[in-house]
Amino acid sequence: MMYSPALLLSSLVGAVSAASSLQVVTVGKSGSLSYSPDQLTANVGDKIEFQFFGPTHSVVQASFDEPCTAFNGGTGFFAGMSTNGNGPNPNSFTITINDTKPVWFYCGFPGHCQAGMVGVINVSSNKSETLDIFRSNAANAAKSTTPKQQQGGVIGAFVNPSSATSGSTASTAGSTGGGSAATQTSSGAAPSHTGNDAGQLRGEFALLGGLAVAAAAMLV
Ligand SMILES: [Cu+2]
């Protein structure tokens, strides 16, 4: 349960390709109203990639005290609503962990948080703030809220391709404020599998192009 094949694989890939590790959380896979895994431990600088399955789900940051309410007046991360039939959505949502405080999250689709679609990164040792308690409190939440728009993370397919071709490394934007543990990053090295693959391909083509120019220059 703690070590899914996907998580192990992503950890191996992360260990080979980057200093910080990438952990994958599937969202609503196989028709479930759940995140898998729903409890993670991450280091500062690690990235968590949420991969969405149909029909409609999201991930929204919460505080422990308000399980189905957008974090700190709506300043936390929000993946937007992902609607994609029955299969996986090609657009993942990746957040970067900026401190070791607990990061609580839930699905903002009406009813899903109350049905137990919640999770946590870096749960504290405080026994009064466990995922089980958070989930049971969520069941009693009167309603779910979300920020107005996607924020606080990177959508896989929307990574700026120009930064990917430049080969620039990850850069972390400033805090979104309000003590948010996860803030937005802007990076060509965002750990979207499609983004990375495309970026690497583009990078290789750019390199080949550069070599061709160099070769042509030598011929003249
Ligand atoms: Cu959901």
UniProtKB/TrEMBL annotation:
Residues 181-190 have a biased composition (Low complexity). Keywords: Copper, Metal-binding, Signal. Residues 23-125 form the Phytocyanin domain. Gene3D superfamilies: Cupredoxins - blue copper proteins. The keyword Signal applies. Residues 1-18 form the signal peptide. One of its GO terms (molecular function) is electron transfer activity. It comes from the Eukaryota. The keyword Metal-binding applies. Residues 166-196 are annotated as: Disordered. It holds the Pfam family Copper-bind. CDD domains: Cupredoxin (cd00920). InterPro entries: BlueCu_1, Cupredoxin, Phytocyanin_dom, Ser-rich/MCO-related. This is Phytocyanin domain-containing protein. The lineage of its organism: Eukaryota, Fungi, Dikarya, Ascomycota, Pezizomycotina.
